[in-house]
Amino acid sequence: MTSDPGPGSNGFPLPPSYGPPSYGPVPYGPQPQPVQPDMLAAAADRERTIDVLKAAFSEGRLTKEEFDTRSGRVLAARTYADLAAIVTDLPVGPSGSVMPYHAGYYQQIAPLPPTNGLAVGAMVCGIAEIFTFGFAAIPAVILGHIARGQIKETGERGDGMAIAGLVLGYLGIAAWVLMILVIASHT
Asked: Global pTM?
């Protein structure tokens, strides 16, 4: 393990008056602190720390040598405490010190009940009537009625698909009946 040269240039400690100017109270509420300073840092955390160093260098708060030295220390840092020690004397904006990266939090949702397979079959048969000239209408109606009964008993999803299969099936049957009546009236 290498020795840490300290916060100042050339390994000398900084005078007590050195540091970021006082910006007053933070308008965003209390400053968050790292929850676990000994937690291992990720690449995204190192990139954010490098961004802080870049900003300080562009503002003239760091010399080129200090920037290079601290950048090397950032790349070698393993924990959040290591990263925070590198930028402790630099202003890092309204969020305070280097914080752990947290991915988006999503609310836990209850698992959805399964979809009834017969309801899916009813809808597929109802759509397939177009390609089968209405021959899938009767299976669509049968599967739709059975699926609705099962859905009421088990609480499964798919009631809309069963209804769609029923509607398309009855429309297909009605089209066949109408076609038969038209043919019968012409003979």
From this structure: 0.44
